[in-house]
Amino acid sequence: MKTKLKPLAYLLAAAFALAAAGIAAYAPATQAADDKKAEAPKAALTVTTTKPSNASLPIKLAANGNVAAWQEASVSSESNGLRLTEVRVNVGDVVKAGEVLAVFSADTVNADLAQAQAALHEAEANAADAAANAARARTLQNSGALSAQQISQYNTAEQTANARIASAKAALASQQLRLKYTRVVAPDSGVISARSATVGAVSNAGTELFRMIRQGRLEWRAEVVAADLRNLKPGVSATVKAANGSEVIGKVRMIAPTVDPQTRSALVYVDLPLNAGSKDAPFKAGMFASGQFELGASSAMTVPQQAIVVRDGFSFVFRLNADKHVSQIKVQPGRRLGDRIEVLGGLTPDTQIVVRGAGFLNDGDLVHIVADNLASAAAPARAK
Questions:
Q1: Which domains can be identified in the chain, with CATH numbers?
Q2: Contact predicate 342/335, CB 8 Å
Q3: Cα angle, residue 318 at apex, residues 323 and 321 outer, rounded to 5°
Q4: For residues 238 and 228, is the Cβ–Cβ distance under 8 A?
């Protein structure tokens, strides 16, 4: 019985030995595969890429300046020593040329006017009598009834009477002009910008009563450095932005012939639309405004706005290398058009750059590239 069991024991021992050897051989292989898998690098982010493209971008010149009246008119009193009885307009009112703005008391002027009219009638009556006497004297000139001296006196009296008529007419015209001056009228159409007229005040001739913006026209006086003046000329369009964000389109009327020796800048006068100076318009004379001159367009290399990352005050893009790693490249941004930004240097047209996910990358990161429509569904999360 013992003899029969020995071969079976040997067979079992051999089987266990082979199984142990197989397990021992498989374990190192599995461990090596696991170690190799653990050593494989992981992509930091799933991103999309693109290349710079050429686009036609507008050329603009930014400037700052003040809004001012195109021309201001000073409306003054032409009456002396008269009392102001009525003021018909106030600041902000739109007036037309010839419209009555204020009225002075005309009582004294009317009395002087009546006296001047009476003096004229008296002078005309005296002149008529003198003319009749002179006519009679001339008819008796050959009869010898009157001496030559008497005839000359009658003729002189006639001429003197006529001169007094002319003098009386001039005095009457002066009083009529004074009566006209009791009504202060607008010299031109425009907007009243200041008022110093007060009812009851006695003004002297030349006292300013109102100030008005002629024709309601405003202009933007932009300060432009001398180096940029060569790019500007009359007729160039400019977009002017008010303090409240409103924008209007104006045109350059003229460029100042002199440059400020301290600031090295010159004034560029830009005409604003006529309604810009209305009562409810966003632009007011004296306010500060910024704007841009439209100087045409030029070709430029642009990249999507998402591709530019701002760090430490500088702009960067991430270039995709052949090994799927990225390199951080410093660039100089320029003009902006919609969601694209001009790149002035640092890139070539065939450079592959990261677009979506660029803000989460660091220099040297390994990335996984997907199509743009798939990247929108992928969350930009850094692999752990």
A1: 45-57+299-375 (2.40.420.20), 62-70+214-297 (2.40.30.170), 76-105+182-213 (2.40.50.100), 106-177 (1.10.287.470)
A2: yes
A3: 15
A4: no
Distance of CA 1 to the CA centre of its chain: 117
State the Cα–Cα distance between residues 149 and 282, nearest whole angstrom. 82
Structure tokens at 198: 């007060």
The residues that bridge with 221 in the sheet, in sequence order, are 66, 269
Cα distances (Å, whole numbers) of residue 364 to 42, 102, 126, 211, 324: 13, 80, 116, 69, 9
Give the position of tokens 């006086």.
Answer: 221
Contact 83, 202 (CB under 8 A): yes
Query: For every one of its 384 residues, what pLDDT tens digit does the chain have, with 9 covering 90 and above?
Result: 444 445 555 555 555 555 544 444 444 544 544 544 445 567 778 889 988 988 888 888 999 999 999 999 999 988 888 999 999 999 989 999 999 999 999 999 999 999 999 999 999 999 998 888 888 788 877 777 777 788 788 888 889 999 999 999 999 999 999 999 999 999 999 999 999 999 999 988 889 999 999 998 999 999 999 989 998 999 999 999 988 888 899 999 999 999 999 989 999 999 998 766 556 678 888 899 999 999 888 888 899 988 999 998 899 999 999 888 999 999 989 888 888 898 988 788 888 999 998 888 888 889 888 876 544 444 344 433
